[in-house]
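Aim 2 progress. For Transcription termination/antitermination protein NusG, the working sequence is reproduced below.
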Amino acid sequence: MSLSDEIKDENKNWYVIHTYSGHEQKVKANLEKRIASTGMEDRIFKIIVPTEERLERKKGEDKVVKKKIFPGYVLIQMDMSDESWYVVRNTPGVTGFVSSGTKPLPLQPEEIEDILGNMGMKKPELKIDIDPGDQVIITEGPFKDNTGIVDEVYPEQRKAKVLVDIFGRETPMELELSQFEKE
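Predicted structure tokens for this construct:
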């Protein structure tokens, strides 16, 4: 069964549940244990904490880190019934479903496809944690220790245009991502 077929199965809708921020993995583990202990494997199928890989620069080194896309939320694929709702709702750490009043709202197939795509189930591009307007400090080269403001980012080339104040004038410089870091 392909990802698209799995997303569109009528009995398997995706729902969003609220959790305490920072407890998403613990809630996922609690849900998995609770599903096994109550025999709900035929009603509750998948639990996902949406994350994406980002490139961060710390102490002069690039590192790929996983960042939560929606802190405080967990996605769950299930066949909604009173029993499955009760099992999920009464799991430690779950504060509720995203809903319109009392009835949980399933995600649209396009929404879950986008989320899963951002998580790497489709080939995502690596996001860089530098944005135009960010203040940076140059760590290498002749302008080391000068500060500047990111004007443009070129992720494919792993470069950015940084505006640096030289003799009272804003001067654009194209720098490698390894030559500066966020202040």
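The two ends are 47 Å apart (CA to CA). This observation will guide construct design in the next reporting period.
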